[in-house]
Design a protein that fits this description.
Layout (H helix, E strand, L loop, with lengths): L1 H23 L8 H8 L2 E3 L4 E2 L3 E6 L1 E2 L18 E9 L4 E6 L4 E6 L2 E3 L3 E4 L8 E6 L3 E10 L3 E7 L3
Parallel strand pairs: 1-3, 2-5
Antiparallel strand pairs: 3-12, 4-5, 5-11, 6-10, 6-12, 7-8, 7-11, 9-10
Length: 162
């Protein structure tokens, strides 16, 4: 009987920890539930690929010094970190939200200039998503640079803000 009680307690404790991690996602300034769904089905993507609005990618990164950044990142990447460059076609509304599974710096470049973010939210207690950043851009092509990542892969979702 003691073993059954101990096993039930262990199951409840694990369930509570998972619930606490998921509850941490609620601390973002805006909902990230779409990203959670998309990250679960993210396809492997190479640096240089086009990121689709409304989708997620499991982006392979390279050592930062080999990333081929269009412009130097606004925050210089630390030695031993990873990065990548990708493109995105900004929809006519001009607003995009880029969410990441881990720590990395994001620079969005349009018309040869780095665009400042319009909103930022980061949470360390969310298991799947680390940060989500919003940008207001002109419709058309933009370059997205990821730098300073500690791991060689990063899940990235590009969405229209809700």
């Amino acid at each position: 009987m003691k073993k059954v009680i101990i096993a039930l307690f262990a199951i409840l404790a694990c369930g509570s920890a998972a619930t606490a991690e998921d509850a941490g996602c609620e601390a973002f300034k805006w909902p990230v539930t779409r990203e959670q769904v998309l990250f679960a089905a993210a396809q492997a993507t190479s640096p240089g690929a086009e990121l689709a609005v409304g989708a997620a990618a499991d982006l392979a990164l390279v050592p930062a010094e080999k990333a081929g950044f269009t412009l130097p990142p606004e925050r210089s990447p630390a030695e031993g970190t990873f990065g990548a460059v990708a493109s995105v076609e900004v929809p006519p509304e001009g607003a995009i939200q880029i969410s990441l599974s881990g720590d990395a710096w994001i620079d969005v470049i349009q018309d040869g200039h780095t665009v400042k973010s319009a909103g930022y939210s980061a949470v360390k207690t969310c298991r799947d998503i680390r940060k989500s950043i919003r940008f207001k851009l002109a419709a058309g092509p933009a370059t997205v640079q990821f730098s300073g990542a500690r791991k060689a892969e990063l899940k990235v979702a590009v969405l229209a803000p809700e």
